[in-house]
Amino acid sequence: MKSPDKHRKIIRAATKVFAKKGFFNARISDIAKEAKVADGTIYLYFNNKFDILLSVFEQEIGKLIDQVSLLLKKEDNPKIKLEIFITNHLEEMKKNRYLAEVIHIELRQTSKLIREYRKNTFNEYLAIIASIIEQGQEAGVFRKEIEPEIARQMVFGALDEISRCWHIGNDCPFTTEEVSQQITSILQVGILAPNN
Amino acid sequence: MKSPDKHRKIIRAATKVFAKKGFFNARISDIAKEAKVADGTIYLYFNNKFDILLSVFEQEIGKLIDQVSLLLKKEDNPKIKLEIFITNHLEEMKKNRYLAEVIHIELRQTSKLIREYRKNTFNEYLAIIASIIEQGQEAGVFRKEIEPEIARQMVFGALDEISRCWHIGNDCPFTTEEVSQQITSILQVGILAPNN
Amino acid sequence: MKSPDKHRKIIRAATKVFAKKGFFNARISDIAKEAKVADGTIYLYFNNKFDILLSVFEQEIGKLIDQVSLLLKKEDNPKIKLEIFITNHLEEMKKNRYLAEVIHIELRQTSKLIREYRKNTFNEYLAIIASIIEQGQEAGVFRKEIEPEIARQMVFGALDEISRCWHIGNDCPFTTEEVSQQITSILQVGILAPNN
Amino acid sequence: MKSPDKHRKIIRAATKVFAKKGFFNARISDIAKEAKVADGTIYLYFNNKFDILLSVFEQEIGKLIDQVSLLLKKEDNPKIKLEIFITNHLEEMKKNRYLAEVIHIELRQTSKLIREYRKNTFNEYLAIIASIIEQGQEAGVFRKEIEPEIARQMVFGALDEISRCWHIGNDCPFTTEEVSQQITSILQVGILAPNN
DNA sequence: GATGAATGAGCGTTCATTCAT
DNA sequence: GATGAATGAACGCTCATTCAT
């Protein structure tokens, strides 16, 4: 029977290799070497290279969902919930460089497969943002005329762009906390000065 | 003398092919066929496959810069300038599906070349956003505690995520105008309801 | 573990193909077909096409060195040693048509690699000639004013030109033995008639 | 009408380029650039790349033949004639690096075409050596049992190997004169010390 | 189950040759 | 005659995938 341990090892190795080289430049043998496994062994656990990529997402983003869900469960205030989501995402991206790169590099690589995939686990993650907005609107805390879907895209787009800039190596002179606060603040009260 | 017409034809073809298949899945012969030239002809105008990608950016993003610069020149109010930038970007992405895909798919290829490249033309485009924010702060229209760099990332990230969702084929029930207004509005006054 | 058998098969095939077509006209797929392996298999055993050429030399010339060294060990007389070298080389070239062609065709490829290479195994082979001359001089059998290096070049040049003519297809009406004796004789006593 | 001047310019350029890069690594455009002529122009004067190579030989070796023939005409003594041939060849090879490389690199490149060619002008050059030997034998100066064909091969092989070593960049601590004398001496009186 | 040698389709790129101007 | 842009066949090499052990 296939060992779940080896499955995990391969996923971890693939996450690292994809992050370092990008999906197309990563070779199966790189992943095999990183996982200390024979090339052929990988095909006992995955159908093909692309399947590995999908599994990396399932696994890693599943973890993200679990983690942030746990944090959000303890809080009722939508304002704070949004802040928690933002802070958690940024912190994770800063910590888990591999996942960050896999998301922002590989998520756009292509193609129908990814597109279909995105209707699954990853969209579940994004849906959390929309649901926070909706709860806030129901609670009268957020403006009703905001479309939760658009706001969700804004939030994720903003966060993902931030993490991309971090990992591109351009110096970013701000701490995670500062960035988190600024984004939260802009989202909450906008950029206008009081009398405008 | 190498014909500038052919150069343009190849760029156009490459934009289309990269958008449809992604950089790595695009074949030189695909581009050649699309441009109705021989494979070898491409190498009279470009050094290699990657050079084509860079040229596509230079060309297309140069156009974007020119266009939005022209529009912004006519306006002084930073609030409206920001709206103009947002609207123009979204409209262009909606219209020029190929450019949109090339940006959001290919901009993420890990590559020193792209990284270096991004310090050039593309960053020029992004710098426009930051400068609008700064002008607004100087004019007292935007909050001074906003970091223009972070806001810039938020804006571009949001817009890029929007355009990605459009082209991914997920139904987006909103018009360009609605999206543009919502984003502008969130950025300007935030998402909080009046008394929060 | 990569099979040494396959390594040998490829070397043998390459020797044949290089001899038949020359290095530049030889195709990797020709070698693969001749060796009855897949094209890609060749790259499990060699780094690139040029590496195959070098290996052919290492292998084949190594064999030549071993063989002639063995023969020379049994003999002390420098006169006879020289004759042995000459005869052995000519016999081998006559027998091993492929090696002969590889030497005289490929040895002349301008290439830093080959030049560096020649300082290794092949030059070892040539050095045998020089050392025979030197021994002869020490023993007082050969004239002391002969430069061993120049004589060495003469000997090898002569032998290589002979073998080239054989394989070029021009009829050569002499047996290996006759040629061997003539060359040995010219080298030993020159071409002058007794009273000149 | 095709200009003989341009024909000569291309030959000269090709000699240089072939010598520098070898036949297979030389590109038609290299030759065209060196000759300050358009690529296409070359095909007005030559049928194909290989034809250029043949023409280079015809031309350059023709010159060699003329030159050495002139020198030999003035001399009757076969001993001296042989010395003249040897000295002249070595001097030319030392002077005309391009021709030297073209001979020793390209002469072995390959193939049926070259082989047929060699029955022409180049063999004429080699025949000069044989005829000197024959004259010497008739005059009783050279041993009758020497086969002129074999001696010819020895002479040319020796000379060509010398010139190859020169151009390979290996240090050769001897002057042209020394080499010439040593080779002449070995050929004439052999390498044996007086009493052997 | 695990291995890693073997496979071979596939692609980026080169360059001799052609031909419209 | 001269040009040089255009052509496209050809090849070295890679690497995802398979399969005998």
Automatic annotation (TrEMBL), chains A, B, C, D:
One of its GO terms (molecular function) is DNA binding. It holds the Pfam family TetR_C_4. Residues 4-64 form the HTH tetR-type domain. The keyword DNA-binding applies. InterPro entries: Homeodomain-like_sf, HTH-type_Tx_Regulator, HTH_TetR, Tet_transcr_reg_TetR-rel_C_sf, Tscrpt_reg_YsiA_C. The keyword DNA-binding applies. Transmembrane segments: none annotated. Gene3D superfamilies: Homeodomain-like, Tetracycline Repressor, domain 2. Keywords: DNA-binding. Residues 27-46 bind DNA. This is Transcriptional regulator, TetR family. It comes from Desulfobulbus propionicus (strain ATCC 33891 / DSM 2032 / VKM B-1956 / 1pr3).
